[in-house]
Amino acid sequence: MYLRQVAIFVHTCILLTQGILGADQVTQARLVGGSSNGTGRLELLYNGQWVTVYGSYSSSYFNTNDAKVACRMLGYGNSGIAQSFSNAPVLFGQGTGSVLNHRFHCRGNETDLRQCGSSSWSVSTSTSHTYDVGITCEPTKVRLADGDTPQSGRVEVYFKGQWSSICDTGFDNTDARVICNMLGYKDTGIAKAFTGAHFGLGSGDIIMTSLDCKGTETDIKSCSPNWGHSTCNHRKDAGVNCDSTPIRLENGPTNSSGRVEIYHGGHWGTICGNYEFDQPDVTVICKMLGFNNPNAFGYKNAFYGEGTGNVIISNMKCDGSESDIAQCQSSTWSVSTSSGGCDHTTDVGVNCAGVTEIRLVDGTSEQSGRVEIYHNGHWGTLSDGYFDNHDLRVICRMLGYEYSSKSFFMKGAHYGSGIGEIIATRLQCNGDEDDIGQCSAEWWPQTTSQSHDHDVGVNCDGVIPIKLVGGNSSASGRVELYHNGLYGTICSRSFDRYDLTVVCRMLGFDSIPKNAYWYPAASYSQGLGEIVVSDLTCNGIENSLGQCGGRWPAYSSCDHSQDVFVNCNGAAEKIRLVNGASHYSGRVEIFHSGQWATICDDYFDRADAVVICRMLKFQNPEKAVAYKRAHFGRANDTIPIVATSLHCNGLETNLGQCNPSWNPSYCSHSQDISVDCCPNCQDPIVGRK
C-alpha cells in the first residue's frame, strides 16, 4: 500500500509538472470493466472526455511496451508484467464515445503515453469499439484445484471475480513449468502438464487457451494466450503436477518389490502393462522409491496380484532419465477401471532390489536339483520351455555356484515334479544377466496352463553320482546312476562308443583305452529299480551324461535285460574257434556273462574276421577269411547268441570296440559266424620234426 501511495504521489507530481508545461500535455488513465484496479479496458482522459484506445488484433497499434507505460501512469511502476489484450471488448465490454486511433511506439521506459511517438493525438467518433484495448498491470492469480497433492491439480486463473480453468489446447510441459514457477514450486524438478481434465472437471467460463510459453516467463500472460470465452469444454481442462507423484509398492515379499500403485484422483490405482513396459520405466519407478539400482527389473500381467480401484496409467514410455513418472512424455493418464484396453490383469510390478529368491530341491548334491522360485508367499517351479545353457549360466551365478563345462540342465522334471504355482516359463536369458528377472520370460499368472511334468532342474557342478556294480574289477561292471534318492541303470538302447567314453570319463578314467567296451548285462548281473536313461546321444567330448541328449527317464520299452555293462580298461574278451578243419579255423565263440556263446552273421565281413584272428594271436591276421551261415556247423541250441553286426574296421583289438548289437532276438544258429585265420596253413603232424 505504501509503494502504491508513493507511486500515486509521483504520478501526481508528474501531472502537475505537465500542467505547468500545458494543460494539453496532462494525461489521465483508468481501467474499466475488469476484476480489479489493475485489469480492464484502457481509457484516457482527452479534452475533457474519456476515450478508448484502438488496438486492432495486431501489436502494431498497442503492444506490451505501450502497456508498460500505461501501467506506470496508473501507479504500478515498473512491474514487468504489463500485458495488453487483443480482444478486450469480449473480456471487459465495449466502450462508448470516441476512440483514440494512434500508434504509440513506446520504448517502455516513458512515464506518459504522451511521450511516445512524435505525432499528435486525434480521436474519432466513427471508429468501432470492436478493437478497444485492454491491459493488465498485475500478476495473474493462479491456483491448483482437486490435485493429489498441494502441488498438483487443475489449473485455474482468477479473472473478473471468478476462478476459471484453462483449455488444454497446445498445453505442454513448458507451460506447466511457468505455472509451477508462478506458484513458487521452482525447486522440485517436476513440471508435468496434463490434459483431458486429468484432475477433474472445473466449472464456469474457460477464458484462456493456446498458451505458448518458452519456459522462462514469469507470468502466463506473457505466453501469448488467447483470451475470451473459449469453445473448449471442461473435459479439456488443463492440469499440472509440480511435485513428485505419490507412489508405493504393494503385495511384494520385500519393501523393494511389489505391485506399483500411484495416488491420483483421491485414490490409489495401478499402472497398465498391456503395452510396452521396459527397463527405463522400471528405472524411473525405482528411482522414485529411493532405489537407484541398474539391475532392477519389472513384471507385467499382475505378477504381484491384481490391484483394485482405478487403472491410472497406460502406454508408459520413460527414457530412464526422468525423476518422476509424471515426466515420461508418452504416458496416458486416466481415471477408470478399464483404461485403454487395460484392466487389473495387466497391473505392473517391480523388483527394485533386482533379486529373485531361488533354490534347488531334490538334487543329488547341493549344486543340483529342481529350480524353485519364491513368489506370493510360496515356492513354485520353473517350466523347461526354451530353457538352455544361457539360462543355466544365470541360475548358477544367482546361486553362487560356478558355471563350467561340466554344468548341465535337465528337462522333464528330472529331479521330480514340484507342487504349487509354475512361476515362469520360456525363460530366454542371454547369459550375462545377474538375475532371471532381467531375462525375457512368461511369468505367473500366464503360466497357469503349464504342467509340473516340465519342471526344469540344473546341475551346476556337473556331478552325477555313478558307480559300477557286479564287475570283476574296478573298471568293469553294470553302470548305475544316482537319481531320486536311489541308484538306477542305463538302458543300452542306442548306446554306443561315444556314450561309453563319457561314462568312463565320469568314472575317472581320463585315458580310455581303445579296447574299452560295453555290452548288455547278463541275466545274473541285471539291476533293479529305475532305469534312469535311454537313447543317449553323446558325442564323446562331454564331461557328464547330463550334457548328452537322451531320454530321461528311459523309454518304457526298456527292461533290465538291456542294462549297460562296461569295461573301461578294455580287457580283451575270451574267444575260441570250435569245430574247424584246423586250429586256425572254426566257429567263433565268445565267453560272455559266464558262458560260451556265438555271434550272428549280420553284416559280418573280412574286417571283422581280421580283428578276431588278431585277438587269437595268429600271425598275419589280415589274411583271414570270413564265413557266414554256420560254415563250420551250428552250435547247440543251449548255447546263446549274444551279438551281431560287429562293424569292425579291421584295426580294433577287441570286439567291444566294434560297437556290436547285443542280444539279437531274431538270429538263429544257422547264422553262426566262422573264420579261417590261415587259409593256406596246415596243422603240423604230431611227432614230425
Keywords, please?
689 residues, disordered N terminus, 7-stranded mixed β-sheet, 12% helix, 42 strands, 6 domains, Mac-2 Binding Protein, rod-shaped, 8 helices, alpha+beta
Profile the largest sheet: 7 strands, mixed
Write the CATH fold name of the largest domain. Mac-2 Binding Protein
Please, what is the CATH homologous superfamily of the largest domain? Answer: SRCR-like domain
Apparent shape:
rod-shaped
User: First CA to last CA: what distance?
Assistant: 150 Å
Which SSEs are present, and which pair or pack?
Layout: H1 2-21, E1 28-36, E2 39-46, E3 49-53, H2 64-73, E4 83-85, H3 88-92, E5 99-100, E6 123-124, E7 134-136, E8 142-145, E9 152-159, E10 162-166, H4 173-182, E11 192-194, E12 206-209, E13 226-227, E14 239-241, E15 247-250, E16 257-264, E17 267-271, H5 279-288, E18 297-299, E19 311-314, E20 332-336, E21 349-351, E22 358-362, E23 368-375, E24 378-382, H6 389-398, E25 408-410, E26 422-428, E27 440-443, E28 457-459, E29 466-470, E30 476-483, E31 486-490, H7 497-506, E32 517-520, E33 531-537, E34 549-551, E35 564-567, E36 575-579, E37 585-592, E38 595-599, H8 606-615, E39 625-627, E40 641-644, E41 661-662, E42 674-676
Parallel strand pairs: 3-5, 10-12, 17-19, 24-26, 31-33, 38-40
Antiparallel strand pairs: 1-2, 2-3, 2-7, 4-7, 5-6, 8-9, 9-10, 9-14, 11-14, 12-13, 15-16, 16-17, 16-21, 18-21, 19-20, 22-23, 23-24, 23-28, 25-28, 26-27, 29-30, 30-31, 30-35, 32-35, 33-34, 36-37, 37-38, 37-42, 39-42, 40-41
